[in-house]
Amino acid sequence: MPYIKPELRPMFNEIYIHATYLSTRPDLYTLESVKNELFNALGEVDAHKRTGCLNYFFTKILRDCLNNKTAPLLSAIMKSYFLTDLSYESLEKADGFLSRIRKEFKRRKWNNTYNDVYYFIDLFSILVDVEAEDYEDLKIKENGDV
Hints:
This protein is an all-alpha fold. Helix content is 70%, strand content 0%. α1 (9-20) runs antiparallel to α2 (31-43), α1 (9-20) packs parallel to α3 (50-64) and α2 packs across α4 (70-82). It starts with 8 loop residues before the first helix and ends with a helix.
Protein backbone atom coordinates (compact mmCIF):
# COMPACT_ATOMS: atom_id res chain seq x y z
CA MET A 1 0.00 0.00 0.00
CA PRO A 2 1.26 3.45 -0.82
CA TYR A 3 1.03 4.91 2.67
CA ILE A 4 4.61 5.62 3.61
CA LYS A 5 5.65 7.67 6.62
CA PRO A 6 5.53 11.45 6.13
CA GLU A 7 9.28 11.81 6.66
CA LEU A 8 9.97 9.56 3.64
CA ARG A 9 7.60 11.34 1.28
CA PRO A 10 9.68 14.43 0.39
CA MET A 11 12.48 12.29 -1.03
CA PHE A 12 10.10 10.29 -3.24
CA ASN A 13 7.96 13.32 -4.11
CA GLU A 14 11.04 15.07 -5.48
CA ILE A 15 11.82 12.07 -7.70
CA TYR A 16 8.18 12.02 -8.78
CA ILE A 17 8.50 15.68 -9.84
CA HIS A 18 11.61 14.81 -11.83
CA ALA A 19 9.67 12.01 -13.54
CA THR A 20 6.95 14.47 -14.53
CA TYR A 21 9.61 16.53 -16.32
CA LEU A 22 10.61 13.65 -18.62
CA SER A 23 8.24 15.00 -21.26
CA THR A 24 9.08 18.67 -20.96
CA ARG A 25 12.71 18.80 -19.81
CA PRO A 26 14.65 15.96 -21.42
CA ASP A 27 17.72 18.17 -21.15
CA LEU A 28 17.50 17.90 -17.33
CA TYR A 29 15.99 14.48 -16.69
CA THR A 30 16.30 11.19 -18.52
CA LEU A 31 14.68 7.86 -17.90
CA GLU A 32 18.01 6.52 -16.65
CA SER A 33 18.73 9.47 -14.35
CA VAL A 34 15.30 9.31 -12.70
CA LYS A 35 15.53 5.52 -12.34
CA ASN A 36 18.97 5.84 -10.74
CA GLU A 37 17.74 8.59 -8.44
CA LEU A 38 14.86 6.37 -7.33
CA PHE A 39 17.09 3.36 -6.72
CA ASN A 40 19.52 5.52 -4.71
CA ALA A 41 16.61 6.74 -2.58
CA LEU A 42 15.37 3.18 -2.07
CA GLY A 43 18.87 2.26 -0.93
CA GLU A 44 18.55 4.80 1.89
CA VAL A 45 15.35 3.18 3.19
CA ASP A 46 15.16 0.14 5.47
CA ALA A 47 14.94 -2.98 3.33
CA HIS A 48 11.48 -3.94 4.62
CA LYS A 49 10.08 -0.52 3.58
CA ARG A 50 11.48 -0.36 0.06
CA THR A 51 8.64 -2.03 -1.80
CA GLY A 52 6.12 0.19 0.01
CA CYS A 53 8.09 3.27 -1.07
CA LEU A 54 8.19 1.93 -4.62
CA ASN A 55 4.42 1.37 -4.49
CA TYR A 56 3.99 4.99 -3.33
CA PHE A 57 6.05 6.24 -6.28
CA PHE A 58 4.24 4.02 -8.82
CA THR A 59 0.80 4.98 -7.48
CA LYS A 60 1.57 8.70 -7.78
CA ILE A 61 2.79 8.29 -11.36
CA LEU A 62 -0.11 6.03 -12.35
CA ARG A 63 -2.69 8.29 -10.72
CA ASP A 64 -1.34 11.66 -11.79
CA CYS A 65 0.85 11.54 -14.87
CA LEU A 66 0.95 8.26 -16.78
CA ASN A 67 2.09 9.14 -20.31
CA ASN A 68 4.41 8.03 -23.08
CA LYS A 69 7.46 9.18 -21.07
CA THR A 70 6.57 7.93 -17.60
CA ALA A 71 5.30 4.51 -18.73
CA PRO A 72 8.74 3.44 -20.04
CA LEU A 73 10.25 4.69 -16.76
CA LEU A 74 7.93 2.48 -14.74
CA SER A 75 8.66 -0.41 -17.07
CA ALA A 76 12.41 -0.01 -16.62
CA ILE A 77 12.04 0.27 -12.84
CA MET A 78 9.81 -2.79 -12.71
CA LYS A 79 12.26 -4.89 -14.74
CA SER A 80 15.30 -3.74 -12.75
CA TYR A 81 13.68 -4.06 -9.34
CA PHE A 82 11.81 -7.32 -9.73
CA LEU A 83 13.05 -9.19 -12.79
CA THR A 84 16.84 -8.84 -12.84
CA ASP A 85 17.67 -11.84 -10.65
CA LEU A 86 14.85 -14.20 -11.50
CA SER A 87 13.64 -16.52 -8.80
CA TYR A 88 10.30 -17.81 -7.67
CA GLU A 89 10.38 -15.20 -4.90
CA SER A 90 11.10 -12.27 -7.25
CA LEU A 91 8.26 -13.33 -9.57
CA GLU A 92 5.87 -13.62 -6.62
CA LYS A 93 6.92 -10.17 -5.38
CA ALA A 94 6.30 -8.68 -8.83
CA ASP A 95 2.85 -10.30 -9.00
CA GLY A 96 1.99 -9.14 -5.49
CA PHE A 97 3.25 -5.62 -6.17
CA LEU A 98 1.03 -5.23 -9.22
CA SER A 99 -1.91 -6.84 -7.46
CA ARG A 100 -1.67 -4.42 -4.52
CA ILE A 101 -1.63 -1.40 -6.83
CA ARG A 102 -4.63 -2.70 -8.77
CA LYS A 103 -6.54 -3.40 -5.56
CA GLU A 104 -5.75 0.04 -4.16
CA PHE A 105 -7.11 1.74 -7.28
CA LYS A 106 -10.23 -0.39 -7.01
CA ARG A 107 -10.59 0.21 -3.25
CA ARG A 108 -10.31 3.96 -3.74
CA LYS A 109 -12.83 3.68 -6.58
CA TRP A 110 -10.32 5.17 -8.99
CA ASN A 111 -10.97 2.30 -11.39
CA ASN A 112 -13.66 4.11 -13.43
CA THR A 113 -11.40 7.00 -14.35
CA TYR A 114 -8.12 5.16 -14.71
CA ASN A 115 -8.58 2.68 -17.54
CA ASP A 116 -5.04 3.41 -18.77
CA VAL A 117 -3.71 2.34 -15.38
CA TYR A 118 -5.43 -1.03 -15.63
CA TYR A 119 -4.15 -1.46 -19.15
CA PHE A 120 -0.63 -0.67 -17.96
CA ILE A 121 -0.87 -3.04 -14.98
CA ASP A 122 -2.24 -5.76 -17.28
CA LEU A 123 0.73 -5.30 -19.62
CA PHE A 124 3.11 -5.64 -16.70
CA SER A 125 1.28 -8.72 -15.49
CA ILE A 126 1.74 -10.28 -18.92
CA LEU A 127 5.46 -9.42 -18.80
CA VAL A 128 5.75 -11.09 -15.39
CA ASP A 129 3.77 -14.11 -16.62
CA VAL A 130 6.05 -14.54 -19.63
CA GLU A 131 9.13 -14.27 -17.40
CA ALA A 132 7.57 -16.78 -15.00
CA GLU A 133 6.76 -19.25 -17.78
CA ASP A 134 10.30 -19.06 -19.15
CA TYR A 135 11.74 -19.41 -15.64
CA GLU A 136 9.51 -22.38 -14.82
CA ASP A 137 10.37 -24.11 -18.10
CA LEU A 138 14.06 -23.65 -17.33
CA LYS A 139 13.62 -25.09 -13.83
CA ILE A 140 11.70 -28.09 -15.21
CA LYS A 141 14.66 -28.80 -17.52
CA GLU A 142 17.16 -28.32 -14.70
CA ASN A 143 15.34 -30.14 -11.91
CA GLY A 144 12.66 -32.30 -13.54
CA ASP A 145 8.92 -31.89 -13.49
CA VAL A 146 6.70 -32.16 -10.43
